Amino acid sequence: MSIIIVIAALALAALLIWTIGAPIARIGGALLTIASLICIISGDSIATRAPLLIAGVALWLAGHFLAAYKNRVWSSRLAEGIVTRTPLRYLDPVSGREHRQARRAATGDKPKPSTGRTLVDDFAQWERELAADAAPAAPAPTCRPVAKRVPARPAGKSRGAVYGTRAAKAAANLAVRKVPGARAARSAWRFVS
Domain ranges in the chain? Predict the structure, then answer.
C-alpha cells in the first residue's frame, strides 16, 4: 500500500513540475539571483552568497530548459546563448534550424520564395562555344511565364483586434514613460520571461 502512495506522489510531483514548473523555476531563480546580488552589493560576504547566486542561476536555467523541452523553442535569448556556448549544448532540446523557423514564424518573416527557374551561366556557355570553335548559338527562345495560382489568404485578425492590440501597446508605452518604476519592472519582466 505504501509503494502505491509513493508512486502516486511521484506521478503528481512530475505532473506539477511539467505543467507549472517552468515559470515557477524561472521566476524563483531570477528572484534568488537578484536577492543574492543585492545582498552582495549591500556588503555581505561573497563566499556566503555565491552558493545562493549559483543556485538561482541554475534554477532559472532549469526553468528555461523545461520550457524549451515542452515548446521546442527557447523563450530567452540569454538562456539560449548560455546553452549554445557551453558544454550544455549537448543537452540542447532545440536545434538551430528549428529555432530559426520558429522565430521566423513568430515574427512573421517569410522565407525567400524560389522562382523555380535556374539561372543561365552565360560565361560558361561562351567558354564552351570558344572551346568548340563554333559560331555563337542562337539565344534560347523566351517562354512566357506561366501565371501562378495565388492561394486564398486565410482570414487575418479582425479590425477590432488590430486596433485593440495597437491601443494596448500605446497604453503600455505611455505607462512606462509616466509611472515611476514601470520601466524597471518591464525590463525585469522581459529578463525573466
Answer: 2-108+187-192
